[in-house]
Design a protein that fits this description.
Elements (H helix, E strand, L loop, with lengths): L1 E3 L2 E3 L10 E7 L5 E4 L2 E8 L11 E5 L4 E3 L14 E11 L4 E11 L3
Parallel strand pairs: 6-9, 7-9
Antiparallel strand pairs: 1-2, 3-5, 3-8, 4-5, 5-6, 8-9
Length: about 110
């Protein structure tokens, strides 16, 4: 990181992707099922990274996403928030320039 004329510039030399876990409540009515378990939902992230990430955070799922204590993406429905833990990668959506989480697993907590 360098500062010149009061302007900070960060030049990355390496990027490392690691799965991370986030937890929070599923946003009621936010589930979009495209096909099978492929789709998305919104998460009100209540863990540490939630301070840095947009609220709510968009979570993308695929047909390879592992759902634990849930029958699949369509199980994220109803009128009450669902307490979740999501493990995956945080990436930037180039269309919106906003962070999104690509889920490897979605687990319902406190059932």
């Amino acid at each position: 990181m360098t500062t010149s004329n009061g302007l900070d510039t960060l030049t990355p030399h390496r990027v490392v992707l690691r799965r991370q876990g986030q937890a929070g409540d599923w946003v009621v009515g936010s589930t979009v099922v495209q096909s099978g378990n492929a789709g998305s939902f919104q998460l009100n992230d209540q863990w540490t990274a939630g301070v840095l990430l947009p609220q709510p955070l968009t979570v993308l799922t695929t047909n390879d996403t592992n759902f634990i204590n849930l029958s699949g993406l369509s199980a994220l429905s109803g009128t009450n928030p669902i307490d979740l833990r999501v493990v995956g990668f945080i990436l930037v959506n180039p269309a919106t320039n906003q962070p999104v989480m690509v889920a490897r697993s979605v687990e319902q907590l406190n059932q």
